[in-house]
Amino acid sequence: xxLVMKLYLDFEPCKECKEMMAELSSPEMIFADEKTRIDxxxxxxxxxxxxxNEVVQAVMEELPKQKENQEPxxxx
Length: 76
Ligand SMILES: [Zn+2]
Hints:
The chain is an all-alpha fold. The chain has helices at residues 2-10, 15-24, 27-30, 34-51, 53-70. Zinc ion binds next to helix 2 and helix 4.
């Protein structure tokens, strides 16, 4: 969920975003099984893709950099 938390900091969430983020961080979801959490995360990411594409693009641009920083040996 680090990705979602990062997204949260970087853009103005709409009403639907806020609802899904509240759901994702609710106690029910924290104790839910993994499939339920993954399903909700996927739903949220789908919503971002369709409604906040500029945010998804910004994150995608940043991902390879992060990977490189975290795994410097991977490219050698
Ligand atoms: Zn939204």
